[in-house]
Design a protein that fits this description.
The protein is of the alpha+beta class. It has 2 domains: 91 residues, Arc Repressor Mutant, subunit A (Orthogonal Bundle), CATH 1.10.10.10; 59 residues, 2-Layer Sandwich (Dna Ligase, domain 1), CATH 3.30.1490.190. Helix content is 41%, strand content 13%. The chain is built from 6 helices and 6 strands; from the N terminus they run ααβααββββαβα. A 3-stranded antiparallel β-sheet has the order 1-3-2. A 3-stranded mixed β-sheet has the order 5-4-6, with no helix packed on it. The longest helix has 18 residues. The chain is globular. The structure holds zinc ion (ZN) (3 copies). One zinc ion (ZN) binds next to helix 1.
């Protein structure tokens, strides 16, 4: 599998852009199926349903909300099963967990080994995943200088997207 990923529609999507989100979901689903197939894992109905719920919007989803949404689709799924499913999706790189929000977000590039770098809008709650290449390079440099092995370099940047800035201009 190539490590260089061509940009998907989501990469160029501004926050709050009206778009046919079912295309995003379809694209994500196809990638998820490929990833599972290549890893010899089964993309079961439950895994797919949980995955689709995480992808319902470009917003992080909390496990608790996901469980109540799931309950409307199928009954009798124990919370532990949902958490196991989320763990599975996370381990496959299909979803990211945003630690500061304790919520999950679908990944548009599951085939590419990467650390999650996120822009999180506090206004509309949408999140975009970007690769901050300069940041990664700085970390590599620090690793070298300090002879320190970084295992995790997730970046969660909170703020207001362009649209929310225009809707809520600073009061002073
Ligand atoms: Zn979308
Ligand atoms: Zn990702
Ligand atoms: Zn916003």
């Amino acid at each position: 599998m190539a490590t260089d990923i061509s940009k998907t529609a989501i990469d160029t999507l501004d926050f709050g852009t009206e778009h046919n989100h079912s295309l995003c979901i379809n694209e994500a689903l196809q990638l998820a199926k490929q990833v599972c197939e290549q890893g010899g894992e089964r993309f079961t109905d439950l895994r797919q349903q949980v995955f689709e719920l995480v992808w319902a919007e470009h917003k992080p989803v909390k496990a608790y909300d996901l469980m109540s949404d799931l309950a409307s689709k199928r009954s009798g799924v124990a919370p532990a099963t949902v958490y196991r499913t989320l763990d599975f999706l996370q381990a496959q790189g299909l979803v990211h967990k945003l630690e500061s929000l304790n919520a999950y977000l679908g990944c548009a590039h599951p085939q590419k080994e990467h650390q999650g770098h996120f822009l999180i809008c506090e206004g509309c709650e949408e999140v975009r995943e970007l690769e901050f290449a300069a940041f990664s390079q700085s970390v590599r440099k620090v690793e070298k200088e300090q002879r320190f092995k970084v295992k995790q370099m997730t970046v969660e940047l909170f703020g207001l997207c362009n649209r929310c800035q225009q809707e809520n201009p600073p009061s002073n």
